[in-house]
From TrEMBL:
InterPro entries: Agluc_phsphrylas, Glyco_trans_35, Glycogen/Maltodextrin_Phosph, Glycogen_phosphorylase_DUF3417, Pyridoxal_P_attach_site. The modification N6-(pyridoxal phosphate)lysine is found at residue 604. The gene is glgP. SUPFAM superfamilies: UDP-Glycosyltransferase/glycogen phosphorylase. It comes from Agromyces seonyuensis. It is an enzyme of class 2 (transferase). Belongs to the glycogen phosphorylase family. This is glycogen phosphorylase. Its EC number is 2.4.1.1.
Length: 849
């Protein structure tokens, strides 16, 4: 019989073990190994069974065992020492407190998903894991950051595979009382967030708080009795429903999230954020709610927009237009007036209008709105920055892609969460430090034999874990049948192991390895140098194409001659990932370049001494150096997609056969693969620090949060007067711009044959219409050119105005000829204002000719 309801009865923990409760209540345990080991000591088998979840462990452990530990002086002392360490960690000054530069007193970080621990499954993939890692690194660095998201009753979904290889989804319901969450209360009363809906009802939400080290994470949850059933279901699952359901989730995240932050400030006295970070467009409505609050204070739309933009950071995560959230405009129009009362509909809708949509009837685009509401924007790897500048370039017409104000901060991964305990112990033995990201992993510092045996132990651990998962899946598919030996003995702990796990959208090309099945089969079954593959990944429930790919792969793994040499593990999640990355020798990634924004699984694998074998996309395009793995060449010039797949798969097979397998299997007199270990050491030594999430969060702080806070301060000066002035100035410039043009450009002063070091005199007559020279910057842009084509390698120099009249001004400059070769130049006019973050900000430019 199945229960209609479940709830969690918390165990009574003996007085002398109260420290355990305190440790379980803060998710810091999930990245602090001594505390994990403390919980593991309570009952190692149960710890694994409950999926490393302290609260579940304390609930399920035998009371007699707790009594035994309560009487064990050394255990009690260890628990108390860890509790004291946690308190110290929470209170002491850290990196952020020791910076010289001023920074924001609080940052609100909004994300539709957060992957923090296996025990709190509120994520679907890379976006959520990244958000979790961001919070943890922010905590470690001491950033005053508050996370805001939704609490999904069933998380994403649990994946099983049918006997026919088809993905089956189930939605096990989470019990928040059994999770490390507490209800945000004002006094005794739970805080209630409300959104007025067009049908007269109110969507209500309670707010869960999770302690992620020093960071508070707020999760809004509509599953409260005060809501009708359909409204209770708004936060039922992550990326579940379509249009209206998704819109309600995003309104709740953005608008409700701001209201939850205000409630937190009221009840906990924490400062309200000065900077707001949107992790993708899903949280974009937060900007509208912040504008609405300004309008309520009697501030006009333009001024409010400036006040909000200045302190907002937007991060784009997808170079795939299909990956962007778009809503039917009418649907958005229906919700805005009640959810965001007082917001002028036309202006709000215009924010989400795509640049090409001249009559404003197309979809409402959340990323476009995010970019318009954020004064600071970035992609998540250098290449992705470039791609994003092109993809969104239409928002800044007239500017070259490299001038589009979208920078990049390459993602990082939180080492303490992802580095295997065996690596940590190795670092401690070899260097006397558990900081695996910063110890000197170079040639002579770590014994090759020891490194190799740690890699083998991690591989063996993966093999065990995979066998358990395969056996469980077999038993589930065939109730009552006996799990055969080949499943129980799948994989080999001494064989070169390649891992491939990720979500399964088509661009990630799960089945590229099956392009030439015979050749792939030969690689897997090579008698001297066999290669085994461990594969995992979930397809979005609505994506049948992805499910077909999984099915195709699963069928391939079932060929009798390949059994146990290539396996598909169902239900990829954090728990599996933590065993999979360290257990692999090679991490494979073969997306269609440049559609992988960053890709973080390869980073996690590298930190555990795996070598990457990947298309030069995302982070790998930036970090591949020839000695830390292998680059699969992209066949960008191929005639069509099929041909491209064929060429790139052939390159993959070549690398596996001729480079990867020989390096792994060629053993020296000491029995060790010298070349391989050299590459592993090099990977650990050169990548670990750069791939860390602390590097990423420090970069966000220096390059985005601190400037955003400064900008927010600047526009708020004179009680918002500066923002008002900026808004009025922008309106004036926009109105006057059509008349602005370069009338004439003259150059003189260059000898008939110009030489390097000569100067070029550039003069221009510019008509500024209603504007004055103070409003603009006139510049000469020079660079290399081939036969009058686009300028490359450009440099810019400002021209100086002489007094003029009737709106016409004479500008001039002396340009030093610092480069030989074919040089071209042009003159252009840009808006100029001290409070602009970029001269491209308004998307206005007047170019000569
Ligand atoms: C890291 C991680 C991802 C994201 O990996 P990508 O390489 O970015 O696709 C997805 N799921 C889990 C469980 C992860 O740990």
């Amino acid at each position: 019989m199945k229960p209609i309801r479940t709830f969690t009865v918390r165990a009574v923990v003996p007085e002398s073990l109260q420290a355990l409760e305190e440790l379980a209540a803060n998710l810091r345990w999930s990245w602090h190994l001594p505390v994990k080991r403390l919980f593991e000591r309570i009952d190692p088998a149960l710890w694994r069974e409950v999926g490393e979840d302290p609260i579940a462990l304390l609930g399920d452990v035998q009371p007699s065992r707790l009594a035994e530990l309560a009487a064990d002086g050394s255990f009690v002392a260890d628990a108390e020492a860890q509790r004291d360490e946690l308190r110290r960690y929470l209170g002491e000054p850290r990196w952020y407190q020791q910076r010289d530069e001023p920074g924001p007193a609080s940052i609100g970080y909004f994300s539709p998903e957060f992957g923090i621990a296996q025990a709190l499954p509120q994520y679907s993939g890379g976006l959520g894991i990244l958000a979790g890692d961001h919070l943890k690194a922010a905590s470690d660095l001491g950033l005053p950051l508050i996370g805001v998201g939704l609490f999904y009753k069933a998380g994403y979904f649990a994946q099983a595979i049918s006997r026919d290889g088809w993905q089956l989804e189930s939605y096990p319901v989470l019990d928040p009382d059994g999770l490390p969450l507490t209800v945000l209360r004002e006094g005794e009363t739970p805080v209630e967030i409300g959104l007025d809906l067009p049908d007269g009802r109110v969507l209500k939400a309670r707010v869960w708080q999770a302690a992620v080290g020093r960071v508070t994470l707020l999760l809004l949850d509509t599953d409260v009795p005060e809501n009708d059933d359909d409204l209770r279901a708004v936060t039922d699952r992550l990326y579940g429903g379509g249009g209206e359901h998704r819109l309600l989730q995003e309104l709740l995240l953005g608008v409700g999230g701001i209201r939850a932050l205000a409630a937190l400030a009221r009840v906990a006295g924490t400062p309200t954020p000065e900077v707001y970070h949107m992790n993708e467009g899903h949280a974009g409505f937060l900007g509208l709610e912040r504008i609405r609050r300004r309008l309520e204070q009697g501030i006009d739309w333009g001024t409010a927009l400036e006040l909000v933009r200045a302190g907002t950071v937007f991060t784009t995560h997808t170079p795939v237009p299909a990956g962007i959230d778009r809503f039917e405009r009418d649907l958005v129009a229906r919700y805005l007036p009640t959810v965001l009362p007082g917001i002028p509909a036309a202006q709000a809708l215009a924010l989400g209008t795509e640049p090409g949509d001249t009559d404003g009837t197309g979809a409402f685009n959340m990323a476009i709105m995010g970019l318009r509401l954020a004064g600071h924007a970035n992609g998540v790897a250098k290449l992705h920055g470039q791609v994003s500048r092109r993809m969104f370039g239409d928002l800044w017409p007239g500017f070259d892609p490299d001038e589009v104000p979208i920078t990049s901060v390459t993602n990082g991964v939180h080492g303490p969460s992802w580095i295997d305990p065996a690596m940590v112990d190795l670092a401690e033995r070899s260097f006397g430090s558990t900081d695996t990201e910063h110890v000197p992993w170079g040639e002579h510092n770590v014994n090759g034999g020891e490194l190799w045996s740690v890699k083998r132990a991690m591989r063996a651990n993966l093999v065990d874990d995979a066998r358990r998962r395969l056996a469980a899946s077999w038993a589930e598919q065939r109730p009552g049948s006996i799990v055969p030996d080949w499943v129980l003995n799948a994989l080999d702990p001494d064989v070169l192991t390649v891992g491939f796990a990720r979500r399964v959208p088509t661009y990630k090309r799960l089945t590229l390895m099956l392009e030439d099945p015979e050749r792939f089969e030969r690689i897997l079954t090579d008698p001297d140098r066999p290669v085994q593959f461990v594969i995992a990944g979930k397809s979005h429930p609505a994506d049948d194409a992805g499910k077909h790919l999984i099915q195709q792969l699963v069928k391939f793994t079932e060929k009798p001659e390949l059994r146990g040499k290539i396996v598909f593990l169902p239900d990829y999640d954090i728990g599996m990932a933590k065993v999979l990355y360290p257990g692999c020798d090679v991490w494979l990634n073969n997306p269609l370049r440049p559609l992988e924004a960053c890709g973080t699984s390869g980073m996690k694998a590298a930190m555990n001494g795996a070598l990457n074998l990947s298309i030069l996309d995302g982070w790998w395009a930036e970090f591949s150096d020839g000695e830390n793995g292998w680059a699969i060449p992209s066949a960008d010039a191929a005639g069509d997609g099929d041909e491209r797949d064929r060429i790139e798969a052939a390159a993959l097979y070549d690398l596996l056969e001729h480079r990867v397998a020989p390096a792994f299997y060629d053993r020296g007199a000491d029995g060790l693969p010298g070349e391989w270990l050299g590459m592993v050491r090099h990977t650990l030594a050169t990548l670990s620090a750069d791939l860390g999430a602390d590097r990423m969060v420090a970069e966000y702080t220096e390059r985005l949060y601190a400037p955003a806070a400064a900008q927010a301060d600047a526009v708020a000066a004179a009680d918002g007067g500066a923002a008002g002035e900026l808004a009025a100035w922008k309106a004036k410039v926009r109105a006057a711009w059509p008349a602005v043009h370069v009338v004439h450009v003259e150059s003189a002063g260059v000898a008939a044959v110009p030489y390097l070091g000569d100067t070029l005199h550039v003069g221009a007559i510019v008509d500024l219409g209603e504007l004055s020279p103070d409003d603009v910057r006139v510049e000469v842009v020079s660079g290399r050119t081939k036969g009058g084509a686009e300028l490359t390698d450009v440099s810019r120099q400002e021209l100086v105005a002489a007094p003029g009249d009737e709106g016409q001004y004479r500008y001039s400059a002396e340009v030093a000829l610092e480069r030989a070769g074919r040089i071209g130049y042009t003159v252009r006019v840009l808006p100029r204002h001290a409070l602009l973050t970029s001269s491209a900000e308004l998307g206005l430019v007047a170019v000569a000719g």
